[in-house]
Amino acid sequence: MTLNGHCKADCRLKHCTGAWSRWKRRAKVSPEKRDISEARNAVGVSFVEHHLTIEQLKDLYPDSYIHHEFPERSDGLPSEEARKRLRDGGGNVLPPPKEENLFRVFIKQFHFKFWLLLTGAL
User: Fold this and answer.
1) Contact of 49 with 57, CB cutoff 8 Å
2) 31-59: per-residue pLDDT in tens?
3) Do residues 107 and 115 touch, judged by C-beta distance below 8 A?
4) Can you give the residue ranges of every domain in the chain?
5) pLDDT per residue as tens digits for the range 4-25
6) What residue spans carry the region label Disordered (predicted)?
7) What is the DSSP secondary-structure string of 26-77?
8) Is the dihedral of CA 52, 55, 59, 61 positive or negative?
């Protein structure tokens, strides 16, 4: 045994099989050694749309229906494509907020520390 009461790392005695020894023996995880330029290129590719020309955007996103010569004349999605997307993805609506019980609102006001301070001052 060493001075701190623990055996050496290769000890398998009963007193060294507890949580402390498991923690000491756990595997060390080190980050992957990758080429950082590869990661930068992957991030850079996803944020370049604002630098592209309209022709490049039209080729990159053919479903956007951009009129490349006169973008202001672009009509947007056709009605059948809009119906298909509405059917597949659902409406773009948020669920209404859950109504809160009035008793719970009343009790919640006493949860603030300022109310406790005022009550204690009385």
Assistant:
1) yes
2) 666 666 776 666 666 667 777 888 888 88
3) no
4) 49-89
5) 555 555 555 555 556 656 666 6
6) 72-93
7) SPP-------HHHHHHHHHHTT-GGGS-HHHHHHH-GGG---SS-GGG---S
8) positive
* Phi, psi for 23 (deg, rounded to 5): -65, -40
Is pTM beyond 0.85? Reply is no
Per-residue tokens: 16:
């060294």
The half-sphere exposure of 13 on its side-chain side, counting CA atoms within 13 A, is 9
Which tokens belong to 105? 């609102």
Token duo for residue 17:
């099989």
Query: Tokens representing 32?
Result: 């992957």
